[in-house]
Amino acid sequence: MNTPPPGAGNTRRRRSSGFTDSAPIRRRAKVRVKLTPLGLLAALLAVGGLLLLVTRVLPAMLAARPAEPVASGVFNPAPPLLAGASPIALPPAAGAVIINETFDSLGNWRFATSSGPDYRISLDKGEYHAEAKNTALHNYFDQGKFDSGSVEVDARWVEGDDDKNARVGLVLRRTDQSAYYFEYYPFQSGFWVFQSGEKKDGKDSFRTLGQGNANTLALRDPKAWQRLRVDMNGTKMKLFVNSFYLGEVDTPQAQKGDLGLAVTATDGKRAHMAFDNFIVRNLK
Predict the structure, then answer these.
(1) How far apart are CA 211 and CA 191, in angstroms?
(2) Which residues have C-beta within 8 Å of that of residue 182, sequence separation ≥ 6?
(3) pLDDT tens, residue by residue, 212-261
(4) φ, ψ for residue 221, nearest 5 deg
């Protein structure tokens, strides 16, 4: 009589293949969950709360978040200085002079304000003077439109409210629909800003493409002459204050437009600025 090997009674046979699997048979335990009326109510409330979160609360939170601004330009600042090094003041652009405005008259210029009429323009000893109160006063060179070249001007504070928001600057590539603005704040320790502006639904809309503070070696007394310069080349604009390089803005487009000068005073303040030596050169 053959005796079955140990464990033979706990084996199972695979009928399809004829091979014997020696793994022991495991019985699966059946787990039954019995909910009480109170537990069932708690489960229903949890599911309802989850549905409310998904369908109402999350969409409302997302809608309340402010829209992220669309990037419209890239600013590449001047390289950082090595320890102990000093920035080098750059000479003027070397290209041929196209415009050399000495402000003997204002026949080459036209004026515009963003609001007014609380402003005044005048000439004084070969300088163009612009006074603005709670407005932006722009003066556009009326002898050609430009998309490239080096543009520079001397500007100084004359008098008014010594306000940190008072600023002076250059307007570049201005058309009926858009323009670029490079502005310097004399009373904010070398702070500057470069913006694009365009008209949307009849209103002016501005976007900052670059901003910062000039190196301390470039700073002058707030009431001294400040030299502003922009080199326009395609979509790229290199920025300078008092012959020190600030960086380069990569603008969205390179349209041809007017060049101009700007004085801005806000919050009911008054700013009186003077301009001289407005020069435009070809880029070499």
Answers:
(1) 8
(2) 169, 170, 172, 192, 193, 194, 228, 230, 237, 239
(3) 999 898 999 999 999 999 999 999 999 999 999 999 999 988 889 999 99
(4) -55, 140
Locate tokens 């163009």: which residue?
A: 128
Residues 172, 181 contacting (CB under 8 angstroms):
yes
pTM for the model:
0.71
Closest CA to 102 of 137, 174, 153: 153
What gap in Å lies between CA 193 and CA 265, rounded to an integer?
Answer: 15
If 0-12 CB within 10 Å is exposed, 13-18 middle and 19+ buried, where does residue 151 land? buried
- What is the DSSP annotation of 9-27? GG-EE-TTT-PEE-SPP-P
> Is there a single domain that holds both residue 83 and residue 124?
yes
Q: Are 43 and 97 in a shared domain?
A: no
Tokens of 11: 């084996």
Pair (132, 61) in one structural domain: no
What's 272's domain CATH number? 2.60.120.560
Same domain, 193 and 173: yes
One domain, residues 101 and 177: yes
- Tell me, yes or no, whether 163 and 241 share the same domain: yes
Three-point CA angle 159, 161, 166, nearest 5°: 95
> Could you give the CA distance from residue 281 to residue 31 in angstroms, rounded to a whole number?
87
Average pLDDT value for residue range 145-168: 94
Give the chain's domain count: 2
